[in-house]
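Case study 2.
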Amino acid sequence: MKKWLAIAALTLLGFSTAGHAQGFGQRSSAPGDFDFYVLALSWSPGFCELDGDRSRNREQCGEGAGLRFVVHGLWPQNERGYPSDCGPAGRSPSRIALEQAEGVFPTENLARYEWRKHGTCTGSSPSDYFRDVRRARDKIAIPPALAKADRDQTWTAIDLERAFAAANPGLRTDMMSVTCKRGVLQEVRICLTKDLRDFRTCQQIDRSGCRARDFTVVAPR
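Prediction:
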């Protein structure tokens, strides 16, 4: 019995640590086999406040960087779960491909990581994936209150979702989620069709958002 309980505990621990905010990951052998995309926009001041070691993330978190929303990633997603790491181990995008990522991701290291974990599951080449990331980002209008934020603000998740919906015709609150950590805004995640033309509903993403009553949107430093 003790041996069985130990195995069960290890199994649960594995799921708790391997799970992603948008569902448990699923290794896939069929790139391109997914239902829709999630565009994850990270609130850079929040990342730098919580997790951004400034000595290792000077490009993003250095004094005067002034970044606001930046692309965390464009993630292939299924109705439940998501594929990841679909390409050969060690495969890396070329310098020409990475030129497509400039100005979209806050750092080149993040662009490389996102290609390896998520881009390889799209069925696209690295250059096409990074172009799609830019297309998705360019589709989103940032609410004015956040586009020019110069002081800390307090928001609720539903009010922030409504602000994004108001700024983006066709976007509804059930097509996105807001994530937070220790009372600070982390990300806004928006669901898009595979062709990136339209927003679409996504129950699992919608339900995975911030549970805090409110949170702080940290101003750029």
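The radius of gyration is 18 Å.
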